[in-house]
């Protein structure tokens, strides 16, 4: 791993991959990457953070359409503006609007309480639910997605699947925009809002949590 020294206290700087910067853990000084490096990164990744994502799909055509454009813009803005996933969580739940199918702390929490017995076996005791989405068209509460501070959980009928944020290797993205974790169609985060902002913020949250838990992990492929 590359080592850089702080110009103020000579301490070893720590790389914040989700922020494209270096921080000194001793005095708190922060150092941004050179502008020409950032420009090159944006050319290769459509503005997405190359420290976090490996973009293998040509997004050029999709970026001309809404809500995909709003979705990507939201991911980029959240990861550039906020230093932690907790800050993205606060922004997402306090500043953004979302549909009646979405529940969160202080908003339709009774839906979360109803879902917990079905997924409790895959959760850790201290795990927090961040977002619940009902996905059942005709059967409310029987098909849903839950994002916690540790994982994503997908329930359909009597089946429950979970993916730890640290185990997400790729995001398969379609133009809706639908996002499928590790390319698996029964692990989809889809149709959260009309303009893509909330969905983008949630994906940013998930990816930032992944790197907070495992800073040296491989990049997440977008394909």
Q: Radius of gyration from the CA trace?
A: 18 Å
The proportion of residues in beta strands is 15-25%
Q: Describe the global form.
A: globular
Count of spatially separate domains: 1
Quick one: biggest sheet?
5 strands, mixed
**Structural class by helix and strand composition:** alpha+beta
Give me a quick take on this structure.
The chain has 223 residues and is of the alpha+beta class. It contains 5 helices and 13 strands.
Write the layout of secondary structure elements.
Layout: E1 14-16, E2 21-23, E3 30-32, H1 35-45, E4 53-55, H2 68-81, H3 85-95, E5 102-103, H4 109-119, E6 129-134, E7 143-148, E8 151-156, E9 159-164, E10 170-174, E11 178-181, E12 188-189, H5 197-213, E13 220-222
Helix pairs in contact: 2-5, 3-5
Structural account:
This protein has 223 residues and is an alpha+beta fold. It contains five helices and 13 strands. The protein has helices spanning 35-45, 68-81, 85-95, 109-119, 197-213; strands at residues 14-16, 21-23, 30-32, 53-55, 102-103, 129-134, 143-148, 151-156, 159-164, 170-174, 178-181, 188-189, 220-222. The protein is globular. It starts with 13 loop residues before the first strand and ends with a strand.
Question: What are the key terms here?
Answer:
alpha+beta; 5 helices; 5-stranded antiparallel sheet; 223 residues; 5-stranded mixed sheet
